[in-house]
């Protein structure tokens, strides 16, 4: 990465402070850009879903890994629950989505409750042997008595295809038959998957993040307190592919000790550690065994650290400096927090991050764990909260004595409740991934880069005023 016209920034910069200048390019198509990461985590997309309880659960893990990204399960989830989630994710099909199933005599009300759990917008009606009888979507439930049976409203002639069907063929069959979803069945005719027309297209564009056995990958976080080696071993036994050692102040002795403990549990598993914002922090965590250092103190949407403490660093500069140091040592960084637009992802990658962590933005999707709620205007939203908020801290310390709980609750550095709107045009996390990847693919071609390594090498970054940033915003309602 270079600054435009040899500019030398006189202050630390945020994503909003910078822009990318286009360069002469030989990349003919945006589809010629390979977004795979090279940090050893096996992700084919430079997106990591943050280990936040309001964001990362099993549906998120499955959906994002299928498109090539990684999801980090939060440290607050019990190890036994992590083991359950991991084994579930690892039995998901790498191309077909997990279907939601009901029986003919279930009520339409049940269908309406289940539909927002998955972005594919359909439920499969099955018999007692799990063989599909029909498909129900929201339209089929509209204007119908909520106690009607789903068997009465289902489309009884859905598109049913063998699990091995090529995604292009799925797309073409759906197009030909004017349907929105296809159902996959295994060799015994049992329900095995579901795919929308968009899903069929995505299956051809994205490459799932798979482990050596061809199963979807998943990561999990471990804190710096307690028996870190035992927890790390338990997570590895559960099948976790990448460990994230996570604490607010990553550049502390406890983190160094925790990293050593994790390394004693496995010398080879990819280990991510953070958060830090200085080259010195990067060096110390790499010395202690980290393969990837997580960068970002204070940029997160749920984060009040900078207001409470004055500590942190504008994220673009933090990522650029930390990435340069990690690269010098043959390692990597993830840019963590503060991402609100596809451009922020592009800028973090230009600054040298191997992947970009997203939290709150993805809380407002069907796949986040929270229940879908509606505000006073009927708009759908989900609740999000920070992992250092009173709400998260009291959940994390629920087994401590009331006295210890009260002591820990004093150090609140996050928001306990916020509403993340579900964008009706982009309600699923895959819709957001589509936006991000199309933005980043395009950024790469503007820079003349086929890969993320080339993108970082060729990126020409300019510094802009607040007016410069404002000029780039669309004005959908005119001026
Ligand atoms: N990226 C960011 O800007 C931030 C992220 N977070 C996220 O919140 C979650 C909870 O993290 P965390 O609060 O570290 O809790 P943890 O449960 O990971 O514990 C942190 C440990 O570090 C000690 N500690 C010492 N100094 C600090 C400090 N300045 N801030 C926090 N802990 C300190 C704490 O001791 P004691 O409690 O006795 O002081 C405690 O033992 C994590 O997921 C983290 O990533 C939280 C804040 C900032
Ligand atoms: N200071 C705090 N930081 C937090 C808290 N919860 C999460 N985080 C950090 O934010 C990122 C995600 O950022 P986002 O802008 O995409 O939401 C996450 O990975 C953590 O590093 C918190 O309570 N306080
Ligand atoms: K913030």
TrEMBL record:
Organism domain of life: Bacteria
EC number: 1.7.1.7
UniProt binding sites for NADP(+): 246-248, 296-298
Function as written in the Swiss-Prot or TrEMBL entry: Involved in the purine-salvage pathway. Catalyzes the NADPH-dependent conversion of GMP to IMP.
CBS domain span: 154-212
Cited InterPro entries: Aldolase_TIM, CBS_dom, CBS_dom_sf, GMP_reductase, GUAB1, IMP_DH, IMP_DH_GMPRt
Family annotation (Gene3D superfamilies): Aldolase class I
Entry keyword set: CBS domain, NADP, Oxidoreductase, Purine salvage, Repeat
Lineage: Bacteria, Bacillati, Actinomycetota, Actinomycetes, Pseudonocardiales
Organism: Saccharopolyspora ipomoeae
Protein name: GMP reductase
Gene from which this protein is expressed: guaB1
